[in-house]
Design brief:
The complex is a heterodimer. By secondary structure, chain A is mainly beta. In chain A, about 0% of the residues lie in helices and about 55% in strands. Helices cover about 0% and strands about 50% of the residues of chain B. Classes of the chains: A mainly beta, B mainly beta.
């Protein structure tokens, strides 16, 4: 069965600091997809990124970057020069390639960025 | 905004009552999934509907049921409410089939409190 672990429950940083959110996953499928979502207080899950299991290239999008390493089953997310607006709960999620398009989520990491 | 709308946004019920939550999917999407998110936890998959039929279910009892209508909107019904049913209920729509990537787009959720 698939599983996603986000060991950090809460992280507090000061604005402009860099912060990395960790995600470790378990799956028996060889084809799978990994996601990061952001959940602001409004509750809506905002999609940030999707990676498939065959693409281990790291990705950078503005202040966001992702480090996918199959050897350690990790998909970590880094925010560079954090801002107060980055304060939210961040979820890592896994979807296996077989079956329907459901997601298995980690428990989330609450990021608090103070001015 | 994802185009997925849910109603009501907040509601309070008492134990033993029944509740119906509604979701309008994003235009063009044919699949709806429901997730339950307890406080401090990641969302958990309840079930998924495709072409008006349930085609996947998580570890939830039969008192959690649903419907999908011809316009792809959906309802989640919970009977005999228990205190532990208090949670944010998230609806997600997606486009299944070879023409879609299966990406999930979430609404802002319905926050249910059971007293």
């Amino acid at each position: 069965a698939q599983k996603v672990t986000q060991a950090q429950t809460e992280i507090s940083v000061v604005e402009k600091e860099d912060v990395t959110l960790d995600c470790v996953y378990e799956t028996r499928d060889t084809t799978y997809y990994l996601f990061w979502y952001k959940q602001p207080p409004s509750g809506e899950l905002v999609f940030l990124i999707r990676r498939n299991s065959f693409d281990e290239q790291n990705e950078i999008s503005g202040r966001y970057s992702w480090n996918f390493q199959k050897s350690t089953s990790s998909f970590n997310f880094t925010i560079t020069a954090s801002q107060v607006v980055d304060s939210a709960v961040y979820f890592c999620a896994l979807r296996e390639g077989s079956g329907y398009s459901t997601l298995t989520f980690g428990k989330g990491t609450m990021l608090l960025v103070s001015p | 905004e994802t185009g997925v709308t849910q109603s009501p946004t907040h509601l309070i019920k008492t134990r033993g009552q029944q509740v119906t939550l509604r979701c309008s999917s994003q235009s063009g999407h044919n699949t709806v999934s429901w997730y339950q998110q307890a406080l401090g936890q990641g969302p958990q998959f309840i079930f998924q509907y495709y072409r008006e039929e349930e085609n996947g279910r998580g570890n939830f009892p039969p008192r959690f049921s649903g419907l999908q209508f011809p316009n792809y909107s959906s309802e989640l019904n919970v009977n005999a409410l228990e205190l532990d049913d208090s949670a944010l209920y998230l609806c997600a729509s997606s486009l299944s089939g070879t023409s879609g990537t299966g990406e999930l787009f979430f609404g802002e959720g319905s926050r249910l409190t059971v007293l």
